[in-house]
């Protein structure tokens, strides 16, 4: 039997997502990401101190993945050059491509995936702001790191300022290393490919893409191992917060509609249709008379109107 809902408690239907509303939203988040990297520069001394502190922590934990990878990429151009192209481009190509693919082919999962990515990105911006960190490639030469992107800059469009095009190094924050969103976004892409790709190839790519990205960011001396770990942690926290963010957005959307919804009869009475009312204890609405019964007298209450007297037994 169909159920009627009390006015004001209806659940608003979720609007269908449209590309012309999603695209500005994605561009806005990316703009915030880029602006946040620029604004949260921090001073160089603090950034260097934070980078050296990370190295000391890794040494205490007997972790040293950056040096051997960086020496390998520096010594072997056939590894170093593709790694530089990987770092400079795929971060900005694969992630939007996965978003577009989800929007068209896996629309049911798109909103949750997009919210997870955006929430984690904002968490990364908080990290850039609170902990500006000098990447290994910008430490003094005595620490044993080589900037492979500067070494192989003649092969690509970048200069000595990481992946920034030549002459545009001042438009990027080179101390936004903690956490590594290169690794974080790659992990997000890998999860999407693994869960929704549906083929063995997409599962292989889902595992390989974030792993290779983690090796690339360390081998090119753009991130420490703990930067990569922090990028994974940021994505984990973002995954936990994403459902709460979606519920908050839904609540903000439905609140104006609930306020604007007027009572059906202006007094809040539960009118189902014109002249058809339901009172407590009734299962089926009864048709009410619009006028009082003259015989009932002027003091008859509306509750008495329409009540049938029992028919005497014959």
TrEMBL record:
It is found in: Membrane. InterPro entries: Aur1/Ipt1, IPC_Synthase-Related. Its main location: membrane. The keyword Thylakoid does not apply. It comes from the Bacteria. It is a multi-pass membrane protein. The chain crosses the membrane at residues 85-103, 115-133, 175-194, 201-218, 224-243. Residues 258-314 are annotated as: Disordered. This is Phosphatase PAP2 family protein. The keyword Membrane applies. Keywords: Membrane, Transmembrane, Transmembrane helix. Residues 283-292 have a biased composition (Basic and acidic residues). Residues 53-240 form the Inositolphosphotransferase Aur1/Ipt1 domain. Residues 259-268, 293-304 have a biased composition (Low complexity). Pfam families: PAP2_3 (PF14378).
């Amino acid at each position: 039997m169909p159920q009627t809902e009390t006015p004001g408690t209806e659940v608003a239907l979720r609007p269908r997502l449209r590309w012309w509303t999603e695209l500005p939203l994605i561009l806005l988040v990316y703009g915030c990401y880029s602006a946040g990297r620029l604004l949260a520069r921090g001073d160089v001394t603090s950034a260097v101190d934070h980078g050296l502190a990370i190295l000391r922590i890794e040494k205490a934990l007997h972790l040293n993945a950056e040096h051997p990878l960086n020496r390998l990429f520096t010594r072997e151009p056939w590894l170093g050059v593709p790694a530089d192209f990987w770092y400079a481009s795929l971060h900005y190509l694969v992630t939007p491509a996965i978003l577009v693919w989800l929007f068209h082919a896996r629309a049911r999962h798109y909103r949750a995936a997009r919210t997870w990515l955006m929430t984690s990105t904002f968490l990364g911006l908080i990290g850039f702001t609170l902990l500006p960190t000098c990447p290994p490639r910008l430490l003094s030469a005595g620490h044993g790191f080589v900037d492979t992107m500067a070494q192989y800059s003649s092969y690509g469009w970048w200069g000595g300022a990481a992946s920034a095009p030549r002459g545009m190094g001042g438009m990027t924050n080179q101390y936004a290393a903690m956490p590594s969103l290169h690794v974080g976004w790659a992990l997000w892409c890998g999860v999407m490919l693994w869960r929704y790709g549906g083929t063995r190839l997409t599962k292989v790519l889902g595992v390989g893409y974030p792993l290779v990205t983690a090796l690339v960011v360390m081998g090119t001396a753009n991130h420490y191992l703990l930067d990569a770990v922090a990028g994974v942690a940021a994505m984990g926290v973002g995954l936990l917060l994403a459902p709460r963010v979606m519920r908050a957005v839904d609540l903000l959307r439905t609140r104006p509609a609930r306020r604007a919804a007027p009572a059906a009869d202006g007094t809040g009475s539960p009118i189902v249709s014109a002249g058809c009312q339901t009172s407590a204890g009734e299962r089926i609405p009864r048709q009410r008379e619009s006028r009082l019964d003259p015989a009932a007298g002027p003091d008859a209450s509306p509750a008495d109107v329409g009540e049938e007297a029992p028919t005497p037994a014959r």
